[in-house]
Design goal:
The complex is a heterodimer of chains A (299) and B (352). With 299 residues, chain A is of the alpha/beta class. Chain A contains ten helices and 13 strands. The radius of gyration of chain A is 21 Å and the shape is elongated. In chain B, a hairpin with a 5-residue loop joins strand 2 and strand 3. The chains are: A alpha/beta (299), B mainly alpha (352).
């Protein structure tokens, strides 16, 4: 599985503040990868670095095998729809398509026109007069018709109402299915990600807290409820993600690939949002890394 | 990329070109009459000018002074700053076009458009004003009765090819301030401020030295005598000016030197009593006024010459108009190139 985005020790400092520090991650090709994390985790910075909008202060980032925005050939491989989906408000929808056609050698005009028509956008209308959702769709159309290998979307649905959000993601999914491109998508709306992503990365405080295929994550996380007892009594292959206790009861979120046999536990399923929140909630304890769950056990 | 640049500049370009075209039409209609006048009365054009002609002359100066500033503020400053404000640079920079090519095309196309607009203007104004620059009235005796010659600072910057250099410089200056400030309105204000400062500083301190000025030390005679200024005060200052030996020269300094060649602050005080009539009683103190020569001027000037006083005139001869024009244009284009280089560096390394 080749990496479509690879960061190593990546950091970005604005004057004194580090927006992203020592970030190391791999995003595999051929997936729709969701990037989640609390505000200030460095999602936008990471994606901007990947799109070549920013230059890293430290470390390296590689996208589709090259340094971001290092030349026209590299730019052609990567599409980026920035936060707030910027468009030229004084240019019409048709002008945007002409711009795309003139600035991108791999431009797929048929795709662009078809999408615009299906969305019911009037090509003569100025982008400034479009709704948020329509503008987002226009920006997505530009990103898709460029025919990149990787499409990076930074919070594309944040400002959309639920209906527009669903339509936007629907459009994205159709395009992905049709053209087989890799997508990296950041959002704090986990429910949306659950619908479109098959790979997930939880980024907290510049660090990867959780990474994996969505199906695997859902299959390996369980909520155990039972009489109060000490976590260390669990089998070695069960990692506690979080534990909460009342006087008589203990509730654990554990990660394990093996089935749970202990009859004392009531095993409950977790939604993706529950899993993500468990990882986001955990305090940054300085001992970050590949096996965060193991640390929890020592508490 | 050229298409996008054009598409984004369209509105501002249309406004400027419409104004240029309108002004060019006015010049084309009124110009031939001036040419005829100057042929008919080569030494007294000024006497035959109507109010409209004079107003148009001033308008020509103002349009030429404003055009580069307008281009800098309205074409240059928003070029990158507006993209930064609207976040649209993130759209533009993610097309299959590098930032360098993006800026190069925008800057190149707009600079050409600016040079063309101001080029047309300056061509028109230079042609129109040619009979008037330095024109004199038929009965003019003193210097004040002529329009400024084209080499003097007022006219120089509004004639020839220098305005093209100014326009390109103002444009690149606008782009540079926009890139640094990232906000359109402050960038426009800063562009105007810096451009104005440059337009004041260059004729004062730079242009006189682009070509080493000519220096003439002459005997003061009635023929070249132009006037005496008396600055009244506790110790009256008496200063004398002569006419430059060639017409249309840009006089940089005009001062009296003593026998040893050193400039003198004030002429001997006997001149006040012997050579100039007493000021009218109502004259306000500290006034400076040229005084017309009196009949006893001859003996007065002879006495000055006998004492070793001469007049030193430092000037740029009128014949150097085009030399200075080319030199100044080259200077502005060179500075524009440096600024543009800075813009490219900053766009590649500092913008995000």
């Amino acid at each position: 599985m080749s990496a479509v985005l690879r960061a190593e020790g990546l950091g970005k400092r604005y004057r004194r503040r580090w927006a992203l520090s020592d970030c190391t991650l791999d995003i595999p090709a051929g997936h729709v990868t969701g990037l989640v994390g609390p505000n200030g985790a460095g999602k936008t910075t990471l994606l901007s670095l990947a799109a070549g909008m920013l230059a890293p202060t430290s470390g390296t980032v590689e996208v589709c095998g090259g340094r971001p925005a290092s030349g026209a050939a590299q730019l052609a491989k990567v599409g980026f729809v920035a936060q707030d989906t910027p468009t030229y408000s004084r240019l019409s929808v048709g002008d945007h398509l002409r711009m795309g056609a003139r600035l991108n050698p791999r431009w797929d005009d048929t795709l662009a026109r078809a999408r615009i028509e299906r969305l019911g956008l009037d090509p003569a209308k100025r982008a400034g007069k479009l709704s948020h959702g329509q503008r987002g769709q226009l920006a997505l159309t530009l990103g898709l018709a460029k025919r990149p290998e990787l499409l990076i979307l930074d919070e594309p649905v944040a400002s959309l109402d639920p209906l527009a959000r669903r339509e936007f993601l629907q459009g994205l999914m159709e395009a992905v299915a049709e053209h087989g491109l890799s997508v990296v998508l950041s959002s704090h709306l986990i429910a949306d990600l659950e619908r479109v992503c098959d790979h997930l990365i939880v980024l907290v405080d510049s660090q990867v807290r959780l990474v994996g295929d969505v199906d695997t994550l859902l299959a390996t996380h369980h909520r155990l409820t039972g009489p109060r007892r000490d976590p260390p009594a669990l089998p070695a292959d069960q990692h506690v993600v979080s534990a909460s206790h009342t006087d008589r009861q203990t509730t654990l979120v554990v990660r394990t690939s093996a089935p749970i046999h202990d009859p004392a536990w009531t095993v409950g399923q977790l939604g993706l949002e529950d899993v993500v929140l468990e990882y986001m909630r955990r305090p940054a304890d300085g001992q970050r890394g590949s096996r965060p769950a193991a640390l929890e056990v020592l508490r | 990329m050229i298409w996008l640049t054009w598409r984004q500049l369209r509105t501002q370009a249309a406004a400027v070109y419409a104004a240029v075209a309108a002004f060019a039409v006015v010049l084309a209609i009124t110009g031939p009459r001036l040419l005829d006048l100057s042929r008919a009365y080569p030494n007294a054009v000024l006497d035959y000018l109507t109010r409209t002609d004079r107003n148009l002359y001033v308008a020509g100066l103002m349009v030429m002074a404003l055009a580069p500033a307008i281009i800098g503020a309205f074409w240059g400053a928003p070029m990158v700053a507006r993209e930064m404000e609207g976040g649209t640079h993130r759209l533009a920079w993610n097309q299959t076009v590098t930032r360098t090519r993006w800026l190069a095309t925008k800057l190149g196309v707009t600079a050409l458009a600016a040079a063309a607009a101001v080029g047309v203007l300056t061509l028109g104004v230079t042609w129109w004003a040619r009979p008037l620059d330095g024109a004199q009235g038929g009965n003019s005796v003193t210097l004040g009765d002529a329009l400024p010659a084209r080499l003097t600072p007022v006219s120089f910057a509004m004639r020839g090819i220098a305005p093209v250099g100014y326009a390109v410089f103002a444009l690149v200056l606008g782009v540079a301030t926009g890139i640094i400030l990232r906000r359109t309105v402050p960038a426009m204000a800063l562009t105007l401020a810096v451009f104005t400062a440059v337009q004041i500083a260059v004729p004062l301190w730079v242009r006189p030295h682009l070509v080493p000025p000519a220096r003439h030390t002459v005997t003061i005679t009635e023929a070249n005598f132009a006037g005496i200024n008396v600055l009244e005060g506790p110790t009256p200052m008496v200063q004398l000016v002569v006419r430059a030996s060639e017409p249309g020269a840009w006089v940089l300094s005009n001062q009296t030197v003593d026998a040893s060649g050193r400039p003198v602050d004030t002429l001997p005080s006997w001149m006040v009593d012997k050579c100039i009539p007493p000021p009218p009683p109502s004259a306000p103190p500290f006034s400076s006024k040229p005084v017309a020569p009196e009949p006893d001027m001859h003996s007065c000037l002879t006495r000055l010459t006998d004492l070793g006083y001469r007049q030193q005139v430092v000037y740029q001869p009128a014949s150097r108009f085009w030399t200075l024009q080319w030199a100044e244009t080259a200077l502005f284009l060179a500075v524009s190139a440096l600024l543009a280089g800075f813009c490219f560096w900053w766009t590649r390394h500092r913008l995000s």
